[in-house]
Amino acid sequence: MTTQGQPRILVIYAHPDPQESVANREMLEAITNLPNVTVHDIYAEYPDFFIDVAAERERVLAHDILVFQHPLYMYSCPALLKEWMDMVLSKGFAHGEGNQTQGKYWCSVITTGGAAEAYTPDGYNRCSIDDILKPFELSAALCRMEWLKPIVLHWARRVPAGERQAHAKAYSQWLTSPLGNNFGGVEYGK
After folding, report:
1. Is residue 185's pLDDT more than 60?
2. Where is the Flavodoxin-like fold domain (predicted)?
3. pLDDT digit string (tens) for 14-64?
4. Between the chain's N and C termini, which has fewer beta carbons within 10 Å?
């Protein structure tokens, strides 16, 4: 915990085309100056996909909560984030005989290109966002991490600007007290 009693939060930001992002960029602007939050843009850090595993593990160890912020890509995450998870949270460090992430928290912060109705059994995607994010929840469990309810902004490019701004503000406020605030599990863009 930080000296103010707030958990240390590592936001692992993964967007392969951040210049084109509307919602994720606005969300990052809202959280950049929070004293308990470290924003780590892995596409800026590793444009060649060669991840410094030792440095990344040091970042993980220095934080209490890992927030994975990214757009939903093909029912998953962008490729570099998947590579990061496979390399950094590997057996021997985060699971198996390794337990370095035990007791930490995992929160997925997702933006989608579709409306919330698309993420229902009768919708375009034929399942809920919780179903789509189940592999991430299982990964958190494998790493002995506590799964926090995802934070989702649906219809990220099309949601009205005021709603997008409200989401960014609520995200920032949540990061100041993530374990005592029930913003997790809220879906904007309905």
Report:
1. no
2. 8-174
3. 999 999 999 999 999 999 999 999 999 999 999 999 999 999 999 999 999
4. N
Q: Are strands 65-71 and 9-13 parallel, antiparallel or unpaired?
A: parallel
- The arrangement of secondary structure in 9-188, i.e. its CATH architecture, is 3-Layer(aba) Sandwich (3.40)
To 5 degrees, how large is the angle CA 190–CA 137–CA 11? 75
Distance (Å, rounded) from C-alpha 109 to C-alpha 184? 9
CA dihedral (171, 173, 176, 182) positive or negative: negative
132, containing H or E segment: helix 129-132
Integer CA distances (angstroms), 171 to 86, 167, 183, 185, in order: 27, 6, 8, 11
Q: Residue 150 in 3-state DSSP?
A: strand
Token pair for 144: 């002995």
Sheet (strand 187-188) strand order? 37-41, 9-13, 65-71, 105-111, 146-153, 187-188
pLDDT in tens, 62-118: 999 999 999 999 999 999 999 999 999 999 999 999 999 999 999 999 999 999 999
> What is the phi/psi pair of residue 73, to 5°?
-120, 115
Domain spans of the chain, in order of start: 9-188
